[in-house]
Design brief:
This protein has helices at residues 47-50, 55-74, 88-92, 96-107, 116-130, 168-175, 183-206, 217-229, 245-255, 260-263, 277-291, 303-314, 323-326, 328-339, 344-360, 362-365, 369-381, 393-403, 411-422, 434-437, 441-459, 491-500, 502-508, and strands spanning 6-13, 18-26, 30-39, 82-86, 112-113, 138-143, 148-153, 158-164, 211-215, 242-244, 295-298, 468-475, 479-486, 511-519. The chain is an alpha/beta fold and 522 residues long. The strands form 3 sheets. The protein has a 6-stranded mixed β-sheet with strand order 8-7-6-9-11-10, with helices on both faces.
Length: 522
Amino acid sequence: MIKEARRVAAIDLGTNSFHMVIVEESEGKGIVEIDRVKDMICIGRGSISTKMLDDRAMEAGITTLKHFLVLAAEHGVKPGSIIAFATSAIREAKNKDVFLQKVREETGLKIKVISGLEEAQFIYYGVRHAVRLSSEPELVFDIGGGSVEFIIADHKRILLLESRKIGVARMLERFITTDPVSESELNLLEQFFAAELFTSAEKSKELDIKRAIASSGTAQNIARMVRSMTGREDEVTLNQSVFTRKEFQKFYKSVIKLDASERKRLTGLDEKRVDLIVPGLVLVNVIFSMFKLKEVAISDSALREGMVIHYLKGNRSGRREGRLQLDIRRQSVIELGYRCGWNKKHSEQIAALCLQLFDQLQPLHGLDVHDRELLEYAAMLHNIGTFLSISSHHKHSQYIILNGELRGFAPAEISIMANVARYHRKSPPTEKHDAYSQLKPKQRRAVDVLSGILRIANGLDRGHRQNIVTIQAAITNSTITLGLNALRNPDIEIWAAERMKPWLESVLGKSIRFESLITHEG
């Protein structure tokens, strides 16, 4: 059992970028990200064909690692809790031992060089920590500078692990000499990708996979650019956001023939990826075609997060590996609550009352188990805005949920939860509010019902004393009677709930009355 918080730093030495993530793990809170940093030093530049790391690149890499270690120390990470893995460019370099020895001498850091298959497995752990994988097999791919990893897996098991030497830096160096890319080079690159992806695509078709999850900076840049083209810049979170095959192909056709100066002006593209993005776009286009995918979702966690999870699992006794995935959404909600200093008992009481009300009123509202889950999490987070101020905490709760980097949720789900929390007090939902008006009609209906339930549940714990034990609903043609089983006289709770009921009454078209059934006080 973990008795105290522990901080760990994981450094990923990739072909294009060095990344570091710092996390803290403790009982109750789980794994909470403290900081992350990257530096695109491109240590693999020129080494793909020569198999030799450039002296200047090595020096730049060591300088970056020194900065990373200072940052880790400032965050309270002990030297023994820093892990570092090197991937494709360093893995293949003939002079990698020279670089690793220099790093050891100048920083004290011991770097482990991992194989392509180990890299793929760590990526699976990382993606599984950020995106809610289905019970059916899905494709996961990570576009690196030197290699691309392909994983076919569900939320419990891996069915295929492959690492292919088709990373964007490698392909840029090997195939692209023109700007904009010529038709002949484009065709050659497409054919090369198709040959490399054949076995993975055949396995995918055999399993009838329709969705992929992509990680890495290249994939995130593509997602941002597609989102800009489709007018979805208002979506705050990139994690688990989706772009369809149709959206991507429209974007692809409009940008693949642009030159570097034109690509620089694209919204969402990092300046250092202006050239690297070309083979990345071609690769994603070939993946959509060969794998017959309908859509690609984005994971903002990958190798380094997987390194952390694997490391912590190895230093944890008596804990099942599957637990993190099974609880990914709930754990993420709990982490955000702790970061905002939430009142855990009150929040859990509100959530429990919400679920009772949801279940007993289901014949009236007709929402499903998915909406029920979002209600529970919105209820758990409804008060986190008090972290900023009391008077407008419902608005602050909405903002924090939208920007809290919740893992495992699609952007639309986060928007629903944020709006439900927003309307747990004060004014009810209205299309005058931008965030609510931007929801689709079905989503607005969910927010209407769920916020109405949350408002009443919030009233029923007005004194934060967890007084109401159970609720029993009796429904007639015109009235809903909510019978309250309480630990002590529930007058204060009924008084508060009476003030909060009008919105749900208008949504369900019935009047609501409260009745004290049993009081357990002596």
